[in-house]
Amino acid sequence: MNTKDKILEKSIELFNNQGVHNVGVRDVARALEMSPGNVSYHFPKKEDLILALMEKMSEGNNFCLEAYGQKEASLLSFIALYEGLFTNQFAYRGLLIGNTEFEDVLRNRYAYKKTYEKRVHQLQNILIGLRNKGLLHLSEPDQKMFLAFLTFFGRSWIHESFIYQQNDSAKETIQHYINLLKWQLSLIATEEGKLQLAQLA
After folding, report:
1. What is the pTM of this model?
2. N or C, which terminus of the chain has less Cβ within 10 Å?
């Protein structure tokens, strides 16, 4: 592992355990037994470090979505997609929870609107594919509403989990929210779709 990757790995570990606002570049350097200058060489400011981690998190999300695209559309692969997305988000939870520095970088340096629009378009195509396979009952208004639910759920689950699931493992936490997603899907699933969901029980 090169120095840059070591810095990123240690940074997200510290951010997850202590919160971004409690960890500075010097703390990362100390944990790695490096000079602060060595860390600053790769990441001149803390916001550069946050931005690099945001990009890695986005790459993880892209990997999950691309993997879904290689599979036949089914509710089984849809749930697997969300298990992957939630696992990736959980790995970067320190960035996402109660972090004004992350929000500043998101607003000022990261093309979030463009990324958000791309994600919505990807999810819309996934839902259309599931509907066309006869797995979901989705009128156009239903599709818009379920898409809105997915984008909201995808952003908010991690925040709620740290209020109500504090004592659960990562696996238990993710499974709880996957079960909520499965229940929502069951409300709009066709008979064939419900049979697929039953395989996940």
Report:
1. 0.87
2. C
